[in-house]
Amino acid sequence: MSLMSTEQVAEFLGVKVERVKRLAREHLLISKSQDDKGEPLFEHDDVKKYKELAERIGGL
Which Gene3D superfamilies does the entry link to (predicted)? Predict the structure, then answer.
C-alpha cells in the first residue's frame, strides 16, 4: 500500500491542493489515514482510478 499526501495527489492530478481537499470533503477521494498533522493520506491506486474515471467523463 503506497500512501500519498495531499500535495502529492495534487501534483499527480495536476490540480491545486485546495481541490484535493474539496474532493476528500465531498467523498470523491477517500483518505485511508492521516499524517502527524491530521492531513489526509490517499492510496495511490485509488487516486489513479479516480484520475482515469475523471478523464473518461470529461476531465479533471
Answer: 1.10.1660.10
